[in-house]
Amino acid sequence: MRYRMPAILFIAMSSGCIIPLAPEFEDPPATINYAPYIENSLPTLGSEITAPPSGDVSFSLTVSDPNLGDTLYVRWISDYPPYSDDSRQLGDLIEIAPPADGKPARAPMRFSPSCVVHSIARGLTRHRIMVAVSDRKFLPEQTSPELPFTLVPPDAHLIVGTWTLNLECR
Asked: Hey, which residues does 8 pair with through a beta bridge?
């Protein structure tokens, strides 16, 4: 017995007619997590600053993040890396919440390191001053050689800026 193909199917196959398949649906792509950034700084990032005899020095910068809803975490650190007995977290962790108007987080800030207030290491005349900015909270809160000041979760972005400060703390 011979099989006969219906004429309409034969015509559709021979004329190159394509029968559409059902649509494929995909979840919307995940939002890309962009790194925070330092818009500007004074003094310029990477520069060497000599403190006046009064010891009064200030660092000004603006940090930002392009992701809506990201909270920024800022930590000021001296004499790090590498971690040593001279390394210090300078002041408390700064948390910058995103604004209520739906714009990305952006904050100007000013920091004045102090030998007395921040217990900057004595006996050194040059100090590395670092600002670390993350879009996730630093882990863990305490630090040691095994747990660095700049440890963040795997899904976080971390940026750092440094200066060299010539200042003798007595």
From this structure: none
CB atoms within 10 A of CB 75: 21
Asked if the model's pLDDT at residue 125 lies above 50, the reply is yes
Cα–Cα dist 44/57, whole Å: 13
Say what the pTM is: 0.80
Check residues 2 and 44 and name the one with the higher pLDDT. 44
Residues pairing with 76 in the sheet: 131
Q: Which domain holds residue 121?
A: 33-166
Residue 17: inside a domain, yes or no?
no
Q: Is residue 16 part of a domain?
A: no
Write out 61-86 in H/E/C secondary structure: EEEECCCCCCCEEEEEEECCCCCCCC
Question: CA-CA distance, 64 to 126, in Å (whole number)?
Answer: 29
Q: Is residue 18 part of a domain?
A: no
Q: What is the CATH number of the domain that holds 149?
A: 2.60.40.10
What CA–CA distance (Å, rounded) separates 112 from 55? 10
Domain count, the chain: 1
